[in-house]
Write a structure and sequence with these properties.
The chain has 4 domains: 137 residues, ATP-grasp fold, A domain (Dna Ligase, domain 1, 2-Layer Sandwich), CATH 3.30.1490.20; 321 residues, no CATH class; 62 residues, no CATH class; 113 residues, 3-Layer(bba) Sandwich (Glucose Oxidase, domain 1). It is built from 25 helices and 24 strands. Strand 10 and strand 11 form a beta hairpin. Helix 8 crosses helix 22 and helix 11 crosses helix 14. It is globular and about 95 Å long.
Amino acid sequence: MKFLNDNLTDEQRESLGKKAGNLVELLKGGFNVPGGYIIRYSDKYSDKDLLESIEKIGGFPVAVRSSGQLEDLGDMSFAGLYETFLFIDNLEDLKSSIRNCFESSQGERVKDYLSNAGIEKSNEELYSQFSVLIQKMIDPFCAGVAFSINPLDGIEDHMLLEVCEGVGEHLVSGEVTPNQYTYHYENEEIIHKNIENSKVDLSGEKLKSLAIQILDIQAYFNTPQDVEWAIDKNGELWILQARPITTIEWRKDLGELTDADLKDGGISSAVCTPMMFSLYRKAMNTSMPEYFKKLTLLPKDHPSQWLFSCYGRAYWSAGNVKSMLQKIPGFNEANFDIDLGIMKDYGESGPKTTGQNPLTLLRAIPVLIGMEKEFKKCHKEHLDFSNFFEPLENKYHKLVNEDLSKLSDNDFSSDFLSLINVLFLHTETSYYRTIYNNSNLQTMFNEYLEKLEKKIGEKVNTIQLLTGLDGVSHLEIQKDLKKVKAAIDEYGENSQEVKDSVNSFLVPHFHHGDRELDITVPRWGEVPSRVIEMARNYKETSSSSSNSYETEVSRVSELIEKNGGLFSNRIYKKFQNKLDFVRSYLKLREKMREYSTRSYYLIRKFLLEQDRRWGSRGDIFFLHIDEIIDLIENNTSLSVYKGSILYRRKQYRGYTNFEAPNDFGYGRKQTELRVEELDGKIVYRGIACSPGLVSGRVIVAKTLDETAGIKDGDILITKFTDPGWTPVLGKVAGVVTEVGGVLSHAAVISREYGIPAVLNVSKITNLLKTGMNITIDGDAGAIIVETE
């Protein structure tokens, strides 16, 4: 027997089943949980042991419940499949209830449930993975279930609460119709209620108190929770059970949203602070309408909001963007989505397209002319972006290096506001402008290639045409790490030569870090020891991707010459010019990303200094940038936002481990994992992003910290990459990610390293295990796994 308040190891707690294990965790977190103990099937105990244990938890009456290791597994809850016995008040009934509870693990309902989920368990396994939980019985005035996020509409600011008189089992079993409330956490108000029993109509204060507890439980477990609770006849709140919510209907109130290009190394790769979200929102809400105005696509009643915060991540409005791009002849929603890695089930009607006919072409002439002008203008302006950026960057670097704390409050505030409103905003909106143009240019180039393929009679390998880019800034990290590695090998890690080499490395790379778009994480310039760690594990890449590019261009040239007729020279020249421009834009996008990263380094330093001056110990990261500007300009106390900061901190923690959707909204449906069996092998399908065929050992690394065990020839399986992963990508033989498209970071870097990459393979980090052997085909977008 084990008691809930015993000092249990992680292994002991897991062996007690999910329900009991979670109650142990709740007790450790300071939540009010009835006393109890757990009996495993293999435990030996006497009547005396049972009675002594009952006395230890407060005496009869007690409740007897299941606690299986199989319960509450991911999207499986086992709700209502096991027996529960309440108000047990004597030894004989207790023994009978324990016995019947164990026997319920063998019931047909349980076996059918497991069978439908594809799980096979013997009777002995079912017994061994099942425990019985005996708890002090709470005699409740009312009880119920609270969902920390409303699972019916996916709005995370809302708690859904169901309440009944007496014990909650009446509600769970469907014996009564409960009172139902939808409560807004931050506004502290009831959004909706349906009262069936006026005796248990909870007041505003009681709801507020309960909501605080539910939000705290979500934050404690780092993911939305389904919580069973009770309020006893003395008014005391008790937590009876907490488990992850298994099913959520994603939001449909904000249109079609996606985290494409924000997850693969972006702010949506993990839970995002309100500060970082607000910086992105400020830049996007400025740049997006400006961009569409340049293209004459912006309607008078255009949306003001282009970026939204949901589930602790940022999502942009793909629906609004597509509605404007649809005015362009030849627009193909599927091509747009593939380039960005957006997953969508188009249904029977298929992806939206815009035909090319005289009427649509006539209407679109101003748009097409505007787009071509914008491509060239943006390209020309941003090639010389250093003329704007570097003088201002040098000014702020000087302030940082001379110690910001020495500035007066007035001078510091003035410089901080200038950094945000001048350097950051122009840099970030210019970067976004490059991204928008690059995406549209890539889409138009793909449409051009489709027409070219009809003329030459064969498919063109677009991925190979995008390899062999020179001057990509993130590849310079790998080259410069080689010098640090050489110094370590020759002089030893603690030598002056290595310190000098690290300092030389940091001159161009100080602003980079392991998670560059998490502004709370230090950059390499702040933790130089991280450079030595990376250099220690450095592996020189000998492969080159330039041959793939040259080979494909040569092949297309021959096909044009063979099938192009009298105009073959003109066709080839047009092909090469378009290709050169597309490749140049890809390099420009990476260059502008570099300027963006450098500006975030400066913002981080100023935020840390402002936080120090306010004495807020990290609170600044839970404000929005416009709120900070307001506080500085009006010399207002930070206490104005005390409640918002507390709420945002809890929501941030509450979604830290949450598996958020990539794409959602009205009419959207998540695309299922594409998997098939071929010649006795399992084949997972994704987006082909870098050519090549390689076989090797799998290493699954969901975070950068998990990459230490990578060996030569390994194939990296991960959720996403960002520039901080660049040294890792230089060591592996191939890459598979859960998100991303042909224009994302992992795709660009893999092509330059000449290693195959397949991206956008849903849940692949859970399907493959470290040590497995697989083959990835970067041309076909396939991962091949040998079946056992």
